[in-house]
Amino acid sequence: xxxxxxxxxxxxxxxxxxxxxxxxxxxxxxxxxxxxxxxxxxxxxxxxxxxxxxxxxxxxxxxxxxxxxxxxxxxxxxxxxxxxxxxxxxxxxxxxxxxxxxxxxxxxxxxxxxxxxxxxxxxxxxxxxxxxxxxxxxxxxxxxxxxxxxxxxxxxxxxxxxxxxxxxxxxxxxxxxxxxxxxxxxxxxxxxxxxxxxxxxxxxxxxxxxxxxxxxxxxxxxxxxxxxxxxxxxxxxxxxxxxxxxxxxxxxxxxxxxxxxxxxxxxxxxxxxxxxxxxxxxxxxxxxxxxxxxxxxxxxxxxxxxxxxxxxxxxxxxxxxxxxxxxxxxxxxxxxxxxxxxxxxxxxxxxxxxxxxxxxxxxxxxxxxxxxxxxxxxxxxxxxxxxxxxxxxxxxxxxxxxxxxxxxxxxxxxxxxxxxxxxxxxxxxxxxxxxxxxxxxxxxxxxxxxxxxxxxxxxxxxxxxxxxxxxxxxxxxxxxxxxxxxxxxxxxxxxxxxxxxxxxxxxxxxxxxxxxxxxxxxxxxxxxxxxxxxx
Length: 535
Known about the structure:
Layout: H1 5-14, E1 18-25, H2 30-36, E2 40-46, E3 53-55, H3 61-67, H4 74-85, E4 91-92, E5 101-104, E6 126-127, E7 130-136, E8 140-145, E9 148-152, E10 155-157, H5 165-176, E11 180-186, H6 190-197, H7 206-214, E12 219-222, E13 229-231, E14 236-242, E15 249-251, E16 265-267, E17 269-277, E18 283-285, H8 290-310, E19 315-320, E20 329-334, H9 340-348, E21 356-361, H10 369-379, H11 382-385, E22 386-393, E23 411-419, H12 443-447, H13 462-478, H14 483-489, H15 495-507, E24 511-513, E25 519-521
Parallel strand pairs: 1-2, 3-18, 4-12, 20-21, 21-23
Antiparallel strand pairs: 2-3, 5-17, 6-9, 7-8, 7-11, 9-10, 10-17, 11-14, 12-13, 14-17, 15-16, 19-20, 22-23, 24-25
Helix pairs in contact: 4-7, 4-8, 6-7, 8-9, 13-15
């Protein structure tokens, strides 16, 4: 798919998923207006700035689906898997529209960019949608999305408190005593956002994954002042260096994916050496937290599915829940073999920073919280089915963890709940209530005037009862039947006649039940044995 950033905005506009606001708007109002809107917003006249601002473009499930060219949300995971399985290396181009304006040296002025603030607790205006490309002499290319809080006209921080490949690159450069060059591409298609948001193994180029998602190479152009590529289609590119300062400068607070305000972070400084942009550039402000969520969650789906496949567990469905911030909670349904509930939990809890995982049988709807809670209530014994893993790697943004010194990776607990039916427990215990004739007796039809016809055999008489009792006795000789099955089998008799016929057989002491509660003949091979008396 060759669609670029602007073409995607136009597609959103055509689908009435983007609203153009052409009146003057104070930049300090942008974040709250986006939060209140069910559409993406394009602010054409931001007071004090020459550049329009767009935000919220992937802030809903529907727009995330549109951004990936999909028709359903699960297809996004498939697109990501396509990019991982069939990456397409980037293509380098000589010319790019984001070189129409080039500002270097003293001409660099981040304060001229319409970079909004978000929360009342933010430490400053923050670049949120920059796709960062870095290179390491040993590990190759890396791409990711990181936040840059503006401090001076050419100076920011970079928020890399979480252990990841970008932090490793910056740490290695710091230890070697030299800066780490990076390009920051702002205003790129969600394909590149999705690819750079995937935590690829060291040595894997996320822009090749983005190309696989796109189905065509991502076009890269060479920067002007650093030996790094940038995304050629971007609206704005910052050419910068992470300075070898170490993680010693205070930064924040930030609004996080947790829907909470994070604490103060300690981060390196970033010097911006050049700004290149389109002549009519649009600034993209990625709105936290939901605009981060909808394309982040599928990366968890893919990683969980891969881990379970390696463990040999057959997965039906996965739900990385929004209540768990699309990072920390997963509910997984499996087609279970003996012992696989625990195996699935161990595999899933190894994925990224998942904290709490529930594994259920394939009859449970993982997207229905009541169904999942019901499985926990009816299938779990805590001493057998709940386990806690202490001392596992945790995410620093977890507010339930104690505060750690800068640079120290925290550890925490992971919880697994095996809410599958335990081995040795009959599945008949978990047969749900299902009402007879649900396939044909519909309330809407009766509200519209439907009337049932009287049975052909007429009302109950002693002769009809005796005749039917003989037929029932013959029916259950070869196979036990539930009461409702018998009533349905003899639907040409009214229900009272069926009940009286069964009552007659009971009086004659001919009826019994099998272990599943079906009606059979007393003394037959199907008849259940009474439990032994205690003592």
